[in-house]
Known about the structure:
The structure holds 2 protein chains of 2 kinds.
Chain A: H1 2-18, H2 38-64, H3 66-73, H4 78-103, H5 107-137, H6 146-177, H7 187-212
Helix pairs in contact in A: 2-3, 2-6, 2-7, 4-5, 4-7, 5-6, 6-7
Chain B: H1 9-35, H2 46-77, H3 84-107, H4 110-116, H5 134-156, H6 162-178, H7 188-223, H8 227-248, H9 261-271, H10 274-289, H11 298-320, H12 325-331, H13 335-364, H14 372-409, H15 416-422, H16 424-447
Helix pairs in contact in B: 1-2, 1-16, 2-3, 2-5, 2-13, 3-5, 5-6, 6-7, 7-8, 7-10, 7-11, 7-13, 8-9, 8-10, 10-11, 11-13, 11-14, 13-14, 14-16
Amino acid sequence: xxxxxxxxxxxxxxxxxxxxxxxxxxxxxxxxxxxxxxxxxxxxxxxxxxxxxxxxxxxxxxxxxxxxxxxxxxxxxxxxxxxxxxxxxxxxxxxxxxxxxxxxxxxxxxxxxxxxxxxxxxxxxxxxxxxxxxxxxxxxxxxxxxxxxxxxxxxxxxxxxxxxxxxxxxxxxxxxxxxxxxxxxxxxxxxxxxxxxxxxxxxxxxxxxxxxxx
Amino acid sequence: xxxxxxxxxxxxxxxxxxxxxxxxxxxxxxxxxxxxxxxxxxxxxxxxxxxxxxxxxxxxxxxxxxxxxxxxxxxxxxxxxxxxxxxxxxxxxxxxxxxxxxxxxxxxxxxxxxxxxxxxxxxxxxxxxxxxxxxxxxxxxxxxxxxxxxxxxxxxxxxxxxxxxxxxxxxxxxxxxxxxxxxxxxxxxxxxxxxxxxxxxxxxxxxxxxxxxxxxxxxxxxxxxxxxxxxxxxxxxxxxxxxxxxxxxxxxxxxxxxxxxxxxxxxxxxxxxxxxxxxxxxxxxxxxxxxxxxxxxxxxxxxxxxxxxxxxxxxxxxxxxxxxxxxxxxxxxxxxxxxxxxxxxxxxxxxxxxxxxxxxxxxxxxxxxxxxxxxxxxxxxxxxxxxxxxxxxxxxxxxxxxxxxxxxxxxxxxxxxxxxxxxxxxxxxxxxxxxxxxxxxxxxxxxxxxxxxxxxxxxx
Lengths: 214, 460
């Protein structure tokens, strides 16, 4: 009995280990797990770690100050938040179109879609700035209370990431104009797109967490 | 050595090592004063010894960084240094200014030094690590500007690589943040707040860029691994260092009178500060494992790997130990901080400069690598210094834990000086470890003069 179990285990391990193995040949076909450069995924992972810790701390503090959090949450502008969510998701869609375009060797369209994605980011920044002006002119600062401290630091930290993401996309536009990308070489566009999706993903968690969930 | 002007690094490195010896001599003196309070009193009181110990450290590391930059940048930029004469001139200015400052600390009372150097015109003295007379600070700025002009012009008119651009960014940051040392507001909270802009944003900000680029350079040279791979690592490491390190300044703002939110921001961001150091360790071992050649300079490879490991332990682990606000509430300003300071400075910055020296010195002396005997001695000195620094850190950590308990955590806390007496055994052990470190340093010095069989060169 135990021998059969052991042999089944070994078979299972071998199966798991080699199920994705590609037969050796001269052509290089490797299963590609992640689009873009592996380095950006390391970076994305670390960014998510930072935001993850931030979200966890937020959750713990919310439990400890639930009334304060629920009360002041109502002062946030949900409509602007929702509009911003739409802007970022749409912008993410545009970046997908840009990747498709470059894969089809249509560099001109790729650049247009990149501009469209950038416009989405810019729209986000404008709405967010409007929201901040509203809050700051009401005298709200990091020191006002715990809720506003988290609201401001989380959203400003994310705001900086939108700017960084836009800088990356802008660098890709410049490279694309210089003829750096083609249907064979589009890894740079995918890399930027992956980062842009991360910026979007973080907001999709941040928005309900801070603005909506009660 | 490909470019003649790289040789300028040699004088900088010699000065750096000489000042390093001075720093350690004052270190062991002060270590003894912990347990024998009147040792060398009144000639060298504890506060003066401490000031000299920390100031010499900073000055020799700056010499080390400048020397490293002068060696690295021409080769990366593929051209001679923009103005070699300026580099030589600045060397002497910096050395004389540094020596005069240290002599000033030792020969006249600090208050008299302030008077003599007309500190009242623009008061900047009297703050930990920034004790230098205002005139010395102005000198540092002039030297830094000339240095950055020289390095900057070399990079801008030559080949720009990720390594030299990151290094230049770090050096510019170093100069810019030093300017906060001239800002000396009357409000003590504001004073401390901006004081950290120099201290923290140096060692946990821009210096990390310098360190990462120096390490990357040496690793490219000794392993022959593709530049592209190393540059990618460099990008991720510096991005992470800046993301965690800039807001991480907040971990110094917990108890100095700044708003409460710093306890959160400081804790969250600085908890992530070990990540770039951990990545540096992964990076170094990864690259060495994938090496395309076995470089004859074994000592330099060892220093490079040692830097990555010790920086992670000293800066990363020992920093994390007391970076969260609820823990730091009890530990701030105790021997835990001293433990962290020693291992972090040694592991990150001392070792990276020694890595550069180890790699470049033989080249500047017309060899590919030091001879077999010299390398053996250097490797011995590596282990002696590194292990004794681990011992110093552990003894100070033990002292710190006990101090926190007796002085701050127990049901009836004891006064500071009573607790200090109880820690004497750890201070004695630390002093012994310090003396072993000093002997390791002498071994290191001897390695430059040891004669022996030349290394065998493997065809690349």
